[in-house]
Design goal:
Layout: E1 2-4, E2 16-21, E3 28-30, E4 35-44, E5 50-61, E6 64-73, E7 84-85, E8 89-92, E9 96-108, E10 111-118, E11 122-124
């Protein structure tokens, strides 16, 4: 997925990519550890001036998404074939619907950009993790 496209004629049409891992999948559930994990990586064809990424774990409560935990990282992603894998975001596991979320703000060639996306959802049964309430 394209994260940012710089408007400069000198920049590549596609500048940065972000992928949730597993590929666009839902969050990883570790019932034995009673944890839910969010993971993802980024790479940029054109090195951004600034790249601030927040990776989050969210659960659905009363029809709204609530952030269980998040991590913000200002590391500049490398060019392909390399990529920067963000530190795993962990949260206590509870039964319910979960997803990963990403938001990025930054600048490429002095041009600001913003990006956000969500992973597929995962329904965690009480057989894997306890009920929240």
């Amino acid at each position: 997925m394209v994260v940012a496209a710089a408007s400069s004629a000198h920049a590549a049409a596609k500048s940065c990519d972000f992928e949730f891992t597993p590929y666009q999948g839902p969050p990883t559930v570790l019932p034995a550890a009673a944890e839910v994990h969010a993971d993802g990586w980024a790479q940029c064809d054109v090195t951004p001036d600034e790249h601030i990424l927040t990776l989050s774990l969210e659960y659905k409560e009363g029809g709204k998404w609530v952030t269980a935990n998040s991590n913000t990282d200002a590391t500049l992603p490398p060019a392909p074939p390399n990529r920067y894998s963000y530190p795993t975001v962990k949260a206590a596991c509870y039964a319910g619907t979960w997803r990963m979320a990403v938001s990025v703000t930054g600048k490429i060639g002095g041009n600001p950009f913003v990006f956000s996306d969500y992973s597929a959802t995962r329904d965690i049964p009480t057989s894997d993790c306890p009920a929240r309430f």
